[in-house]
Amino acid sequence: MRRAAHEGLHKGIAKDYFPIQQNEAIYLVDAMLRDASSWENHLQRATTSAIMSLIYATPMIKDENEPSVAYINGFASRITQAAFPGAHYVEFFTWMKFLPSFMAPWKKYAEDWYKKDEVVFKGFYNDVRKHVMAGDERPSFCATIIKDKLNEFNDVEAAFLAATIYATGAESSSAVLAWFMHAMLLNPEVQRKAHEELDTVVGRSRMPTFSDYDQLRTTVIANVLSLHRDPEIYGPDATEFKPERHIVNGRPAPAMADGNGRDVAFGFGRRICVGRHVANYGLFIDIACILWACHILPVRDANGKPVLPVDDDEVNHGLVV
After folding, report:
1. By CB distance 3.0 to 4.6 Å, which of 112, 132, 170, 200 could disulfide with 51?
2. What is the DSSP letter of 64?
3. pLDDT band at 263 (very low <50, low <70, confident <90, very high)
4. Neighbour-count burial of 305, counting CB atoms closer than 10 A to its CB (0-12 exposed, 13-18 middle, 19+ buried)
5. Strand 247-248 to strand 251-252: parallel, antiparallel, or no bridges (unpaired)?
6. Mean pLDDT computed over every residue of the chain
7. Burial of 236 (0-12, 13-18, 19+ CB in 10 A)
8. Would you say residue 174 has pLDDT above 80?
9. What is the DSSP letter of 59?
10. Which domain does 163 fall in, by range?
């Protein structure tokens, strides 16, 4: 399965998805400008719609309550809840896995949902197969593994692979964008510098596109606490939000010299995240377009004072983050 996931999401094929991600970024910015108070809902809709299009070649989803989206988001939520340590007693008392379903509610719950999920996910997968067989498919993960005969497993496994990639991709991307908004609110000076660079490279007559990717050169370091808040590497101010610490005269700083451009948040070695290229491209175009079009400012209270987030270490966006 990992081989199929890699072949459907590797760096070369990720560029086939640029039109989808560009259109989603434009629609996202327009929605945020029209209704800034619902910014988090807009981020969730944008990442959900983009991943659905990448995986299943669906049209842009403009309603965050669209039934198919709600179903897979529920699937992602169930995975997250099941993965929390201590979610079920069987983790501690392994003999419980031999109990029959009528004596193990958690097992019956999983079996019931599996039957429902199989029908829904096979339906999504088979819709793509029909278009592939008719020769009118759009670029998508499912189309790639069907056309290249990479699914050396049965249709049920292929359908669940696609759904799992959707669930993890949508959850992680929306969480990163939410934390990006959080960081911009707490660090207006960093936001100002980003605006200046966008104005210099892109200008005001058009929006950012993927053709700007190489010109808007930045080394992005994932916020992995144990690695990226080490004062011996990053100095006594390692806990401050200072993206410029990673660049010296336009090149990676000494602390980054052996990083080879890797983002440690995606993991390492053979188990590195297969969707990292698609994820990075999507985050690039969303963040560039948001900063090009918007100033991210805090809301104000009844006395006109800005209300800022109080705890920048509080995490409540799913399992991945």
Report:
1. 170
2. T
3. low
4. exposed
5. antiparallel
6. 82
7. exposed
8. yes
9. P
10. 2-220+263-293
The mean pLDDT value for 256-279 works out to 65
In terms of Cα–Cα distance, which of 29, 307, 54, 8 is closest to 177? 29
Specify binding-site residues for heme: 273
When divided into structural domains, the chain yields a total of 1
Residues with Cβ within 8 Å of 62's Cβ and at least 6 positions away in sequence, in order, are 27, 45, 49
285 lies in some domain: yes
Sign of the C-alpha dihedral, residues 110, 116, 118, 121?
Answer: negative
Q: At what angle do helices 67-83 and 39-56 cross, to 10 degrees?
A: 100
177 vs 49: CA distance, rounded Å:
14
Whether the Cβ atoms of residue 157 and residue 1 lie closer than 8 Å to each other: yes
Higher pLDDT, 190 or 227: 190
- Vertex 170: Cα angle to 165 and 176 (nearest 5): 125
Known binding positions: 273
Residue 5 has pLDDT above 80, yes or no: no
Q: Are 237 and 228 in contact (CB under 8 A)?
A: no
Q: Is position 251 within any domain?
A: no
As a whole number of angstroms, the distance between CA 312 and CA 183 comes to 8
CATH code for position 65: 1.10.630.10
Average pLDDT over residues 65-90: 80
